[in-house]
Amino acid sequence: MAPRTAESVPAHPPQPDAPVPRRPAKAASEPVGPCTPRHLCVTFRPPPPDRVAPIPTSEHARPKRKPARPPARPGATPRRDAPLPEAPLLDVPQPKAPQVEAPQVEAPQAEATLAEAPQADAPQMAASLADSSLADLRLADTPAPAFAPLKTERLTLRPLLASDAAAMHRLVNDWEVTRTLAELPYPYPRELADDWIGVTRKQIDDGHAYHLAITGHEGEKETLVGVVGLTLDRAARTGRLGYWVGKAFWGHGVATEAAGRLTRWGFANLTLDRIRAEVTPANLASCAVLRRIGFRQTGTAVRHFTTSGSDHEVLVFEATRDDVFGRPTAPPAVDGQKPLVLVVACALVDTDGRVLLARRPEGKTMAGLWEFPGGKVNAGETPEAALIRELKEEIGIDVAAACLAPFAFASHAYEGFHLLMPLFICRRWKGVPRPRENQTLAWVRATKLTEYEMPPADKPLIPLLRDFL
Q1: What angle do CA 360, 361, 364 make, to 5 degrees?
Q2: Could you tell me which of 426, 307, 325, 331 has the C-alpha nearest to residue 379?
Q3: Rounded distance, CA 142 to CA 145, Å?
Q4: How far apart are CA 234 and CA 232, in angstroms?
Q5: Residue 449 carries which DSSP code?
Q6: Residue 220 belongs to what H/E stretch?
Q7: Torsion sign, CA atoms 286, 292, 295, 300
Q8: Alpha carbons 211 and 204: distance in angstroms, whole number
Q9: Which residue from 308, 335, 385, 428 has the least number of CB within 10 angstroms?
Q10: Cα(158)–Cα(210) distance, rounded to whole angstroms?
Q11: pLDDT tens, per residue, the chain with 469 residues
Q12: Phi and psi (nearest 5°) for 175?
């Protein structure tokens, strides 16, 4: 809506006895009430009298024009009251808003086994990186933030360090370990460990892959026990899981604990639709690990193994978000009918017209998907009361019922229940939204909402909200 401006003098003033023409005032750009949404209350106000220009009644009443000044001589000093020349506008590149997805990269070659091992071409990659400038090393728009180590009950998953090279070489340079790794040479050169660790740090910075050290603690001492990795194919929205564990640590559940933790983190924090893994048919232990995490076998493939120099059959496993976190559940059906689940959501809109989205944290169903803040309506609660409670519990803000305006609702049939979700709009609240349940918050422009993966029940609301804002 264009801002209101003062009325201007008409080019041909009407006769003295003609009525004064006035344009109808535009709708107020701000809500009349303290919390009334714009689409619910439209008020027309005439312009103030002092903003309507007087109509001249004769030629003598018209303002006289000042005679034009002669042009200034070349090189003459401009008059003090002369307007200064306008400075040219600089085309300053605006910083890009952080995106959920990193730049698309080519799909990496699939490995022939489950394990993510140091690649044989790492020395050449490291040499090319050493000759590149710092700008060339940054493939992403902006450097990725430091990776926070992932914790489990017994283990820590963290980026590999240069000091890990000797311990990693000692563990992986074992035929019992390397025989299941498709692209790993045996014997494994010691210098290759140093080169590959350098490559893994760059991959984490660029957001292309996450190869992490699996460490445990014996008292105050940290011990490297293996490596787990997740390589991303951004274009296909898939990841490839791999791991290996030193033989001395087999049989202690290390692989299940580490691979499961990284898989859950990947679905909850990366834009992935599925994660796949490959394992040789003889590696029954790794097959069991994948099934415990939630993977299911989807087929077979043939891969070339560097260790043996020949092709071998591998089993292909895949997992989706629902396989790992489970599907949404509801009370049992009554008389063969799906139960109706009532939830309520809110589109918080800030002064810049951005909408607040929350990303479901790891451990919840549909983890990693973005949604409007809100939650279930308890028995005896009104939708407004439930939303006020949920906003306080989830993001720590206080909202009055008068500041919640019904906007639309979603009706979606899930596998075991039917979801009904009213969506409210709120522009007034007290406090600063902060995550209280390990979720991630993001203020998103209405035109960018479709770039955030959301549950199926939320998606039909996006076009309505985008057109309104």
Answers
A1: 80
A2: 331
A3: 9
A4: 6
A5: G
A6: none
A7: positive
A8: 8
A9: 335
A10: 9
A11: 444 444 443 444 444 444 444 444 444 444 333 343 333 333 334 444 444 444 344 444 444 455 555 555 555 544 444 443 333 333 333 444 444 443 333 333 333 344 444 443 433 333 333 333 323 332 233 333 478 999 999 999 999 999 999 999 999 999 999 888 888 888 999 999 999 999 999 999 999 999 999 999 888 899 999 999 999 999 999 999 999 999 999 999 999 999 999 999 999 999 999 999 999 999 999 999 999 999 999 999 999 888 888 899 999 999 999 999 988 876 776 677 888 899 999 999 999 999 999 999 988 888 999 999 999 999 999 999 999 999 999 999 999 999 999 999 999 988 888 999 999 999 999 999 999 998 999 999 999 999 999 999 999 999 999 999 8
A12: -60, -35
Q: Please spell the DSSP secondary structure of 313-360, one letter per residue.
A: EEEEEEEEHHHHH-----SPPBTTBPPEEEEEEEEEB-TTS-EEEEEP
Closest CA to 432 of 396, 378, 402, 383: 396
- Residue 242: which residues within 8 A CB-CB, separation 6 or more? 111, 113, 114, 115, 116, 117, 228, 229, 230, 231, 277
User: Quick check: 400 and 394 in contact, CB under 8 A?
Assistant: no
For residue 248, the SS3 value is helix
Cβ count near 272 (within 10 Å): 23
**φ, ψ dihedrals at 128, nearest 5°:** -65, -35
Is pTM, for the whole model, over 0.70? Answer: no
Nearest to 238 by CA among 298, 177, 286: 298
Closest CA to 162 of 201, 204, 188, 123: 201
What Rg value do the Cα atoms of the chain yield, rounded?
32
Interhelix angle 284-293/254-269, rounded to 10 degrees, is 40
Please tell me whether residue 9 adopts helix, strand or coil conformation.
coil
Task: Round to whole Å and give the CA distance between 259 and 114.
Answer: 11
- How would you class 348 by CB atoms within 10 Å of its CB: exposed for 0-12, middle for 13-18, buried for 19 or more? buried
* Phi, psi of 446, rounded to the nearest 5 degrees: -60, -35
Contact 249, 218 (CB under 8 A): no
Judge residue 385's burial from the number of C-beta atoms within 10 Å of its C-beta, 0-12 exposed, 13-18 middle, 19 or more buried: middle
CB 268 within 8 A of CB 100: no
Residue that has been written with the tokens 């039909």 in this structure: 460
